[in-house]
Design a protein that fits this description.
Keywords: Lyase, Pyridoxal phosphate. This protein has 483 residues and is of the alpha/beta class. The chain is built from 17 helices and 13 strands. Helix 4 packs parallel to helix 5, helix 4 packs across helix 8 and helix 9 packs across helix 10.
C-alpha cells in the first residue's frame, strides 16, 4: 500500500517573516528574522501541487496511515505532507506524541452544563502536555540539519519554568549524542515538580537569579551570537508540529467540522495559531468543507488577546498587559510572542469561516477553577488550562454564542497531575488573595484517617485488621451481607 511506505512527496519550505515579509530558505536554522526581529511562519512553496490529489483521496490516505506501524508516520507525521515535507524518514523522532484521545463528556456533565462537550486530552502526550507535538517536529528538523551539515554537536536551549522545558529535555535525551539540552530557569521560581522533568531527562539545568524574562534575554543573547537552537515558542518548527492537533480533531470526527466549536486557552498564542493554520490547510485542500468555530480563552488576569479582539475592528490596538497570578499558570502571559501570528491567521480564518468564526472569550479565575473541578468530578483529567477551556464554553453559552446542538471540543493542554497544586489549594481553601478564588466548600475532598496509629501498636495483627475494618464499616454505614 503506497500510503504505508514513507511518502515520496517533498515540498520547498521557506521562512516567511510576519514583520517585514522577507523570506529565507528553510535549510538554515533561524529563530527570528535577522532583518527585523519579527516572528516567522514556515511556508511550503509547493503546497498547491498537493491540490492535484482530491480531498477524498487525502482523507483515505490519512485514514489508512492511522493503522500503520511505521513509527515515522504513527504520530504527528501521519499528516507529513501538510506539515514539514522536507524531512526524511530517518530524521523523524517519535516518542508516542499525538493521537491523543477525544473523550465525550458524560450525560451527567452534559446535564449540568447544558452543553455538548468533549475533551481532547493533550495531557496524554509523552511529557504530559501538547508541547510534545511541536518538539517532535523541531527535533526532527534539527536531526535533518545535523545530518545535512555533518554537525557533531548542537545545543538546544530554552527558558521555561514548565512544559516547554519538560518537552525539550525529553526529546533531546532521546535524540541523542549530537544534541545537548540546556534549560535556563529563574532561580527559586520553579516548583519541585516543574524541575523534576528536565532533571530526570538529564538536561543541563541552569538557574539565573531573577524572573522568566531575565532568562529569556540570556537565551536570546545566546541565539544571536552562538550556534544554538532556541526552542521557545517563536520557533516556527514548533508551530508546524502543533498543527497536528487540528488534523487529528478533523479526522476523529470523520472530516466533518460542521457544528463544531474548539476551545483553546491562549498564553503565548502559539497553540491557537497552529490550530487555525491546520484547519485552513485542510480546507484549502478540500479535505474538510467547513472550518469549525475557534474560541480562544483567556483569564481576566492575563488577557491581552481578549482585549484586542473585544474592541471594534477599526479601533484595535495591541497592548501588553501586566499579569496577576493565574491558576492557568502556563497561559499567564501579558505579551504573547505569537500575537502577530494570531492576527495573520484570524483574518484568513474569518475569510473562510465567516465573521465570528474566530473569537476570544474572557473568564475569571473562579470560573476556571470551578470548571476544572467540575470536569474532573465527571471523569475527565483536565489541568487548570483545560478547566479554562470548559469555563470558556460555559461563558460562550451565557453570551449566547454556542448552544447545545453544537459540539464544544475542549483542549486540555496538559495532564491534570502537572497542575495538581491548584486543586489542593481549592480543597484546602488556601488560595492567596491575588488569585481571587473562593472554593465551593461542598466540593472539598480530603483523606480521612480511619484509625489511630497508636492502636496499631496496642493491638495484635488480627485485632488491628478487625478494628480497622469496623471503623470503615461505621464510616460507610455498611449493612452485613445476608447469607
Ligand atoms: C504552553 C501552554 C499553554 C499556552 O499555550 P500557548 O501556545 O503559549 O498559547 C497552555 N497550556 C499549557 C498546559 C501549556 O503548557
Ligand atoms: Zn523581518
Amino acid at each position: 500500500m503506497q500510503s504505508m511506505t514513507f511518502p515520496s512527496y517533498r515540498g520547498t519550505m521557506e521562512y516567511f517573516c510576519l514583520g517585514c515579509g522577507k523570506r529565507y530558505p528553510a535549510n538554515e536554522l533561524y529563530y527570528t528574522c535577522p532583518e527585523c526581529g519579527g516572528v516567522f511562519l514556515l511556508d511550503n512553496l509547493d503546497f498547491d501541487t498537493l491540490k492535484q490529489t482530491p480531498g477524498h483521496e487525502w482523507r483515505a490516505i490519512f485514514d489508512q496511515r492511522a493503522a500503520t506501524k511505521n513509527t515515522a508516520l504513527r504520530g504527528i507525521f501521519r499528516f507529513y505532507e501538510l506539515m514539514a515535507p522536507v524531512l526524511e524518514q530517518e530524521d523523524i523522532v517519535y516518542l508516542g506524541e499525538g493521537n491523543t484521545p477525544t473523550i465525550e463528556s458524560s450525560p451527567a456533565l452534559r446535564a449540568e452544563t447544558g452543553l455538548h462537550t468533549a475533551y481532547k486530552n493533550d495531557g496524554q502526550n509523552p511529557s504530559a502536555s501538547f508541547k510534545d507535538r511541536g518538539m517532535a517536529c523541531a527535533f526532527s528538523y534539527l536531526r535533518s540539519l545535523i545530518r545535512a551539515n555533518d554537525w557533531d554537536q548542537i545545543l538546544t536551549v530554552c527558558a521555561s519554568t514548565g512544559d516547554t522545558s519538560a518537552a525539550a529535555a525529553l526529546y533531546a535525551s532521546y535524540a541523542g549524542d549530537a544534541i545537548k539540552s540546556v534549560v535556563i530557569l529563574p532561580q527559586g521560581k520553579v516548583t519541585a515538580a516543574q524541575l523534576s522533568q528536565p532533571l530526570g531527562s538529564g538536561a543541563t539545568v541552569l538557574e539565573v537569579p531573577g524572573v522568566f524574562d531575565d532568562c529569556m534575554k540570556v537565551v536570546e543573547h545566546l541565539a544571536d551570537n552562538y550556534r544554538v537552537a532556541l526552542l521557545n515558542s517563536k520557533n516556527a518548527w514548533r508551530i508546524l508540529g502543533q498543527e497536528s492537533y487540528a488534523y487529528e480533531v478533523a479526522q476523529w470526527f470523520d472530516w466533518d467540522m460542521a457544528g463544531k466549536c474548539i476551545f483553546v486557552p491562549i498564553g503565548n498564542a502559539g497553540n491557537i495559531t497552529a490550530i487555525m493554520a491546520g484547519f485552513l490547510k485542510l480546507h484549502d485542500l478540500g479535505i474538510i468543507d467547513t472550518v469549525p468555530r475557534i474560541f480562544g480563552v483567556q483569564s481576566h488576569h492575563a488577557d491581552p488577546v481578549y482585549r484586542y479582539y473585544a474592541a471594534d475592528s477599526g479601533q484595535r490596538k495591541f497592548e501588553p498587559v501586566a499579569v496577576t497570578p493565574s491558576v492557568a499558570q502556563a497561559a499567564m502571559i501579558g505579551n504573547p510572542v505569537s500575537f502577530p501570528r494570531v492576527r495573520h491567521f484570524a483574518e484568513r480564518f474569518e475569510a473562510v469561516g465567516g465573521k465570528h468564526s474566530f473569537q476570544v472569550i474572557q473568564v475569571t479565575e473562579q470560573m476556571i477553577m470551578d470548571a476544572m473541578i467540575q470536569a474532573n468530578r465527571n471523569g475527565h483529567i483536565a489541568c487548570t488550562q483545560g478547566g479554562e477551556s470548559l469555563a470558556g464554553a460555559k461563558r460562550a453559552k451565557e453570551l449566547g454564542l454556542v448552544d447545545e446542538n453544537e459540539l464544544c471540543i475542549l483542549d486540555s493542554t496538559a495532564h491534570h497531575l502537572k497542575f495538581v497544586d491548584f486543586q489542593t489549594m481549592y480543597f484546602e481553601d488556601s488560595f492567596p488573595a491575588e488569585f481571587e478564588v473562593s472554593p465551593d466548600r461542598s466540593l472539598a475532598n480530603a483523606p480521612e484517617l480511619v484509625i489511630d496509629p497508636e492502636e496499631k501498636e496496642r493491638l495484635s495483627a488480627a485485632e488491628y485488621t478487625t478494628a480497622t475494618a469496623e471503623r470503615v464499616v461505621a464510616k460507610l454505614g455498611l449493612q452485613t451481607r445476608s447469607r
